[in-house]
Amino acid sequence: MGARVIQLAEVRARRSAPKPEIATLDSTSELNDRFHFWSGASGRRYVHSVYDLVDCPEVPAANFLLVHRDETGRRSVLAIGHLTHSATSLNLAEIRYRGARLGANEVHVHLLAPTAQQRRIVELDLRAGQIDHGDGDLITATRH
Known about the structure:
5-stranded antiparallel β-sheet
């Protein structure tokens, strides 16, 4: 049987040290404000990170939706597209320019399509899904 020497001062110090806090969201509405699922015509759901148009960070090549969210919380899709620039600052500039022209106040970014071909497929699926949704809202094409 082995023996181990325990320093009581170290044990007390570890117990009294503040525990690291785990990042939590205060409510479901906070979670809904940060993430949103959009469905494509295929029935597949795509998770998007939600940003204010002005506060959107630089983004890599990804899919995006430009959205107008009114005071009641209703979201209207104004444009669906994908970004192609390797420079993240150019992607952000494109998003802000288009968003400002269309009257968007939110940017929804889908980062899980790793290749240009997959981003195009996601874009077409989402666009077709929004047309089938029948809101009557116009969705602008975003061909590159």
